[in-house]
Amino acid sequence: MRKPQLVKAEGLPDRVTIYEVGPRDGLQNESAIVDVAVKAEFINRLVEAGLTTVETTSFVHPKWVPQLADAAELLEQLDLPYGVRAPVLVPNERGLDRALAAGVREIAIFASATETFAAKNLNSTLDDQFAMFTPTVQRALAEGLTVRGYVSMCYGDPWEGDVPIDQVVKVGARLVDLGCHELSLGDTIGVATPGQVTALITAFDQAGVGVDKLAVHFHDTYGQALANTLTAFRAGVTTVDSSAGGLGGCPYAESATGNLATEDLLWQLDGLGIQTGVDLEKLVTTSAWMAKQLGKPSPSRVVQALAG
Ligand code: HMG
Ligand code: MG
């Protein structure tokens, strides 16, 4: 069977947007440094498969993430069709300068919900991260850019354990107040379970951040990503982050493995008749090709089942 039988279910959206993070969240964590031409081909193939939003790279400090040090060179090689959104990660004004020089129109800033991860990932504190983000977002908006805000460690932190829900909501609400059009709620180490997802979305709603502003971002370390995503859809979320082939992790988060694989997500969405515009077969071929480039099998169950 190369596609699931279509049976719709109640209480789900007709259409969702897949925000593809493989080239950024995936490749930032590979021990091998992937050649810039291979990255460009990867992105082109993802777009060819029907993905319309692809996070391409990061303008972070090249010593912190050497895998993405070629960000400017990569963007120069890309010539994406009109209408394809190609956001990049930017932590600070220096990153914004570099992104603007490369012609970027959409950025994502990334905040931590915990003190320890703010230190490890941003060399900052929970509070001081906003001193970095505020001028960055203000300038980006003044330049007409769109700004997404990530919140990391929403459901658990490898150093601090449980993360209080109001702490997550406070960080997220501050990003929205700064002008982020969308918040992506990151399960950076893949520990969340569905009850937490519902509780967090409800808590944001009570704090005035409606579900229309929320996206979800699950890593699949504990095999919970699909269940959590379906829970988010039932709560009204319609934007989901995933990574082709299940590539990914975070170099500054202990035990983080790959993101929810786009193919695994797509199998579920296709079965439920939820529209995405993405072609599963083309995506599987792309991830199998990328796995060859990386010299290791894709962790995606659907790629393993279909690529053989
Ligand atoms: P820092 O060392 O504190 O930086 O790092 P600084 O502001 O003190 O500056 C030191 C030097 O770095 C200066 O140069 C700056 O110009 C330069 P000097 O004057 O000494 O010659 N510099 C830069 N150069 C290039 N690009 C820049 C940049 N910024 C400063 N952007 C910093 C602070 C934030 C830069 C650093 O901690 C960093 O780059 N962190 C990024 C870590 C990262 O990328 N992590 C992975 C992404 S997050 C993630 O994966 C989670 C997510 O997927 C969601 C989830 O799963 O939860 C999004
Ligand atoms: Mg991530």
UniProtKB/TrEMBL annotation:
<keyword id="KW-0456">Lyase</keyword>
<dbReference type="InterPro" id="IPR043594">
    <property type="entry name" value="HMGL"/>
</dbReference>
<dbReference type="Pfam" id="PF00682">
    <property type="entry name" value="HMGL-like"/>
</dbReference>
<dbReference type="GO" id="GO:0046951">
    <property type="term" value="P:ketone body biosynthetic process"/>
</dbReference>
<protein>
    <submittedName>
        <fullName>Hydroxymethylglutaryl-CoA lyase</fullName>
    </submittedName>
</protein>
<dbReference type="GO" id="GO:0006552">
    <property type="term" value="P:L-leucine catabolic process"/>
</dbReference>
<keyword id="KW-0479">Metal-binding</keyword>
<comment type="similarity">
    <text>Belongs to the HMG-CoA lyase family.</text>
</comment>
<dbReference type="GO" id="GO:0004419">
    <property type="term" value="F:hydroxymethylglutaryl-CoA lyase activity"/>
</dbReference>
<dbReference type="InterPro" id="IPR000891">
    <property type="entry name" value="PYR_CT"/>
</dbReference>
<dbReference type="InterPro" id="IPR013785">
    <property type="entry name" value="Aldolase_TIM"/>
</dbReference>
<dbReference type="GO" id="GO:0046872">
    <property type="term" value="F:metal ion binding"/>
</dbReference>
<feature type="domain" description="Pyruvate carboxyltransferase">
    <location>
        <begin position="16"/>
        <end position="284"/>
    </location>
</feature>
